[in-house]
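If your schedule permits, I should be very grateful for your opinion on a structural question. I have a record of one protein: its chain in single-letter code and its fold written as discrete structure tokens. Would you kindly read the sequence against the tokens and tell me how you understand this chain to fold? Thank you for your consideration; the sequence and its tokens are set out here.


***
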Amino acid sequence: MCLAIYKPKGKTISKQALMAGYASNSSGCGYIARVGNELKIFKKLVPFAEFYAEYREIEKDFDIAVHFRAATHGPINNANCHPFVMCDGKFAMIHNGVFHIPLTVPSLSDTGNYCEFVLEPAIKDGSYKDTIKMEKDPRWGWGMVVLMGADGETIIYKEKNGDWDNGIWYSNGCYKWGTMFTDADEHVLTPRRYSFWED
């Protein structure tokens, strides 16, 4: 199960929570940060220490959506790390769950295919704003999505399936396992290079 997090500007995610999210979902990591009227994207298959060095530089000053991937469909590589960028960089999303969708582009995960063939067209025609209709799409299952726009818009689809904790939204509770980690562990957490689900 992946972990998706939404952190409003001014809030701080503890390092231990991030380490726990990474340790239990280490098939890639990334974030979307809204910087002014642009989206800054980080998505890589890297050790936790490299991710955290990038993340902590911008954490407090911006709205950020963080993602730790547990691969289900598609190869474990940088391309399939979240976020997925759409509409020439004006929108990006992270996802926790599995989209029940044909893998039209086999090199992309289920999320990558959903973004390319469903979500980006919905953004372009404006239908993505009908959150009730989007959330009832049977292709979603129980999954949750954080969609951020460069214009300041943030939508958490199926928000109620996750939890708000101290002003930060988490798609599931694996971030709570962070009490088992210390700062010394940051350099031993490395990405998984395999998956039982990998194509």
